[in-house]
Amino acid sequence: MIPLDTQTLGRVEALVRFWRSCHGRHVPPDTRMTVQQRRRLRLMMQAADGRTNGASYREIATAFYGTGRVASNPWKTSSLRDTVIGLVKGGATLIAGGYLQLLRHRPRA
Question: In the chain, where are the structural domains located?
Answer without folding.
Answer: 33-103
